[in-house]
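Dear colleague,

Following up on yesterday's call, I've attached the two folding results inline so they're easy to grep. Please treat them as preliminary; we haven't cross-checked anything against experimental data yet. The first protein's sequence and structure tokens come first.
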Amino acid sequence: FRESDETQDNDLTETSGKYTFAMPKKPCIVTVSTKGKQIKAAKTVSDPSAVLGQKYTAEKPLYDMSDVLIMNDG
């Protein structure tokens, strides 16, 4: 919080991922810094091998995206 040229701290409360604070009566600037989680990807089957001369289409793809798992995608 910023009042004139002075920085003021205010009590910040966290409950189940929700953050709250008492808003002052005077105008203030609220600055929020966040840090994201690393997204992890895995697969449920081994990598397929492409067959020479085989045609792959949307109906018959080489890779099936239903075999991909994405974790921590917030």
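Below is the second protein, in the same order (sequence, then structure):
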Amino acid sequence: MNRADKGDGYLVASANYAANTNKCQRVLGVNMPTNRHAISKVIREHEEGLTRKNARLGDKILLSLPVELSEAHRYAVTRRFLWSITGHGQSRAVAFYHADKPHNPHMHVMLLDRSVADGKPVMHMGASRNKRVKLGLEPNPTEWLRKVWESECNSVLAEFGYELRIDRRNYLERGAEPPDLHRGPDNDNVRDGSIEALEVAPDVDSVSFTETVSEDAGDGDEAMVDEATIERTPDASVSLAANDIRLLASTVTELNRLRHAQTQLAEAQARHAHLVAQRERTALDASLYEQTSLPVLQNARAAQERLQKLSKANGKLKGVGLQIFGYSYKSRTRREAEEAARRLEAAEYAAEDVRITRRDRAHAVDVATEEARLAEENALMLKRSLESVYGSDKDIKTAQQDFERTVLKVTHNVPLEYAREAFLNVEITPDEYQTYLEQAGHSQELADFLANRDKYVVIDTDEGMEP
């Protein structure tokens, strides 16, 4: 949004509206305070600092949060989103959490795309498509925001074991049919003027999976999936090798999830440590400045006291000052009083500069303290989530060792030919077979499999499913 379009004070008004205490339950920010009045002050200073009439004020974003997420995880995904859109903390952003309607939790986000260091654009939200391309950015900033939200949201969903996933694409982009007309309690969907009965999905045990061997495959060639002939056996007769590979796939998934959670926790703890050190440096700088600037304030107070001694009760300067026929006469007391007034003016100017700098440094300490607090909160949340699944640090180490032993045992005990046979008999999925090849180190077989991976597909048939 441009300054010329909205005018001064627009972002401040928007922030005040979004922070309405009757609706806003929490405020999250990057390089922003969490107090509504302090936020308004920062935004107003941002607006007043823009010199061009058509300067870009900022960007307003509305995030619709999945109702399935807990509040803690809603905060987590919003923090990650803010961190990404600010160029990893280079600019400012603030989010206001609204959950007054349980079915519609959402965040009002305000992004000030200006570097806190030099005031230059960070993510170039207002730049043209050509300029964004030259900078290596997504041409459409709105599409980029959607991609960031999809990535960060799915990261949290996967990290904490949610089955739900976010897809920013529309039905056409996904290659899916758009939803049918709304069906009432007594109706089925209406298509082409006729009413179709809602089909009941077959029982899982009754679905058959089939695969075929290409007619072009010779006696020594590997089989290629083409058009269906081999029928999958029921689960009760699945080979031991297939069962082991299924166990391997699930174990690798769990091990990767654990490692990802550990990496996320380590990064969060490292960020917290960095922000704590940064806060301490900022506080130390502010403290040192207070000490070094103290003489300036003392000088102003001394100048004030000096002038008071040389002033009358009504505030006028003491002494005599006359001007007759172009000649002026001032007594010694008047000259001293006027000199005291000049010194006070200069001292007050310097003192005001010191006061402003002190306030700025105190605000920087507050910002650094809040960032460190949020980072600590995020690290604690990640640690609690990890402990809620695996237990104490000792339990986590034991679980990781058990996972690694299981992977080693399965890859050692299942020969390649057994795994290949289980796959060709459709006893394991392509993903499970690929996991086995990756973990067992069969690089050539894996390369051949990946080269033909697109041929292993599942299609609908009248009697069930066919790969």
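For the second protein, one point worth flagging: The chain has a mean pLDDT of 79.

Best wishes,
A.L.
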